[in-house]
Design brief:
With 617 residues, this protein is of the alpha/beta class. Strands 10-9-8-11-12-13-18-22-21 form a nine-stranded mixed β-sheet, sandwiched between helices. Strands 3-4-2-1-5-6-7 form a seven-stranded mixed β-sheet, sandwiched between helices. Strands 14-17 form a two-stranded parallel sheet.
Amino acid sequence: MKLSKLFNYHLIYVILDFVLALGVTFISFLSFYGFNWLSDHPATIIYSLSIAGLTVVVFLIAKIYKFITINIGLFECIRIMVCTLLIHVTGLIVISFVPELPKFSPFVFTWMLSTTSLLFLHPLLRVFVRVFNIASNITKKRSGVRTIVIGAGATGKVVVDESRRNAANHNYIVAIVDDDIHKIGGLFANIPVRGPISNIAKIIEEYKAEEVIIAMSLISPKRYHDILLLLDSCPVRVRRMPLFSEMEGPNDKRIIDVDLEDLLAREPVKLDNHGINDMLYGKCVIVTGAGGSIGSELVRQIFNTHPSTLILFDIYENSTYDIQMELVKKMRDENIKDIKLVTLIGSTYNETRVEQIFKKYKPDYVYHAAAYKHVPLMEDSPAEAIRTNVIGTYNVAKMADKYGVKKMVLVSTDKAVRPTNVMGATKRFAETIIQYFDSKSENTKYAAVRFGNVLGSNGSVVPLFKKQIEAGGPVTITDKEIIRYFMTIPEAVSLILQCGLFAEGGEIFILDMGKPVKILSLAERLIRQAGLKPYVDINIIETGLRPGEKLFEELLLDAEHQIKTSNERIYIEETESINTGLEKDVLEASKAFDMDETIDVKELIGSLIKTYTIDRK
């Protein structure tokens, strides 16, 4: 069926080209010589038929009939014109040898008229189809998603053309925004150009736009983030064309979603990559919790420094296997043979297992990311939080000292600051363990890195919200006033590695998380990014604060009083007094394993971590 339709489609153009060539050539003769000429010189009829037939033959050879006229462009039109000129030049040469055609000069004028006419009529026949299609699509698009395009350049033209000729594209472009004063106030593909881009919020409101497409393929990262910051509070879905470096080919016309990470509009993290590479290159490094969201990204970034041995240690086999296979493939694809990749399953609270690993591999650096971090779950299982977050950290820190590790870095959390939940309290306990061992160790430097929520990590609200949106809603938030600090996973891990470089012993590094984000705003953004409207397509409801949950978390970042580092995003908390009785406290904490009531375990934690406020709900 499809082949027959395609044949009929081409056959129409064959017939039209034949009739057009015959008719124009024949009419040209009549306009110069009149009907008497036909009776005196019947060879002109043969000439006209020959030109028409030759047109079809040459067009077939040149594959003109394979053109998809709905997308015809300048290249195709020039090709048709060249073929047309070739046909008529050939006809002129042949006819000059026919004796029945006297008065050659008038015939040349006839030839010029027919040739010039057909040079434009053959391409115009195809262009008409495209113009008709664009016009009909423009009419249809008036009921589509009202869209503003940022960028009145070549990439913006691609977006406009795609929206007009692609029936599956539902964008109705109402305006184009640009900074070029020579373009502002004009028309771009018959669409008004507004500006500057700094006025985008007002322009969105004026045109009642529902979506914005950033069409600037050569934009710098800083300029891109500046634009996203301008769109931050606008009630629109944001999409973009790929950057030039991301394009898969010269004809890449994808319009892709802007990641939520991009919508945070954070300044790029500046790192001392040279120093980090020098520190880890050719060394043995172990990452605990290597299968987790933070641990796996630590593994990726450490791998790129080319350590001699990279040990992945985790209790959960599935996610650890995934990151192992990812690195194995990378080693195979890039022919990397100088890194020994070791994947080990076990728990940090199993002291014997931890010592086996440290004794065998004698790591130079340890990044301790293994932890329980789901706040509500740990409220119901506080003894397990102690087992992993406290005892596990103690075991790793102890073995780091015993086997001469150069540096151990603990991944901590903002919830350790004046904790109101078990997870935060046990992580604060872990920080005291780090500082205790640093005070007594002669070989190992210990440090902790404290930061807030990580977008897309296990336990983050973002994956939960996305699942709820996919299911049709509602999206649930605990309180509409709740705020959190957020970082991207690569950003957080990069700063962890930077802190490892800075560590001289006993520091608690605090990362500048930027401005806090209202969870309600985050939910609304995710709904809009899914192409839906908050409270219309997807409702947002409050469920109430969960046990141990705060309205806002504290990093206690006080740039005036805390110690600055050479990285503007990293500070050091002023050191508190070291808990000299920590060994006794760890033994005391172990009593939780024999307790049946969760409140008793919480009371035990409260007796050991004085800043912990117990949630008794």
